[in-house]
Amino acid sequence: MANLRAGLIGLGSMGRHHARNLRAISGVDLVAVADPAGDAFGVAGGLEVLPSVEALIEQGLDYVVVATPTKFHEPIGTALAQAGVHALVEKPLAVDTAAARRLAEAFSSRGLVGATGHIERYNPALQELRRRLADGQLGDLYQVVTRRQGPFPARIADVGVVKDLASHDIDLTAWVTQRDYELVAARTVSKAGREYEDMVAATCQLTGGVMTSHLVNWLTPTKERLTIVTGEKGMFIADTLTADLTFYANGQVHESWDDIAQFGGVTEGDVTRFAIPKPEPLRTEHENFRDAVLGKEGADIVTMEQGARVVEVCEAMIESAATGRFVALQS
Length: 331
Description:
The protein is of the alpha/beta class and 331 residues long. It contains nine helices and 15 strands. It has a nine-stranded mixed sheet with strand order 14-13-12-11-7-10-9-8-15. Strands 3-2-1-4-5-6 form a six-stranded parallel sheet, with helices on both faces. Helix 5 packs parallel to helix 6. The radius of gyration is 21 Å and the shape is globular. The two termini are 42 Å apart.
């Protein structure tokens, strides 16, 4: 069977990593690249840098990875769908919910594979966390807390911290818990003099009454990437910077003093850091998208419908911050 013919549009700081992985995975040949701004990172190698998505389509591709600024996602994705080309589009899927839904419909209505590049789903710590939660190892879920903080990345120009960073936490939280967002409340600030917000603190509710808290900013001098899930049997902490997963079990303490024994709290029990394989998340994302294009069972992609839902929750956070109210979402 011939290798899939892949293309890449957008040769910036994220595009160069996509190019590296497209060249590394089996069963795929990177045969065409495009960016009207040129090739600042030398991604193309021996390939001609094409000027547009139309020129890319003319190369006869099976699929394309879209790593352009967000405002171009819908027109580029629509052109690919109309040409019958599968696509992996970087997150956020589109500039707003309506555009994201149109893009998802453009691919699904034509029977094409459309995916959103929420890379954090493929972090080994979160993959293992989801498996253990699905296995019931935490029992009833109570709360999810995420902290995603660090310096401002110069690569971001057209969205704020909610759509660029909090979108990761929205997607991974819904995915690891297998629940949907129902209520959203948030506060944002802009301290760096940009048009968009650079800090958000959000409190949300998932289906089944699970609480979530998300603290995200571009104003912290050191990076922090934590997902903390608390339930009836203890707490998991996933550090996606190191891809480590640690479990803190609830301890069993028997009190002889009756008044204290009546208090139904918890104590610290055993602590376990799991030894897990740590493949590169972007490599895993590319392998799963390749398998989805090939129609293989078990290919785990972030669908465009899921990507659109993430954009909807992001916009609910922004709306809540502007209005000072909880925003309810439809299931």
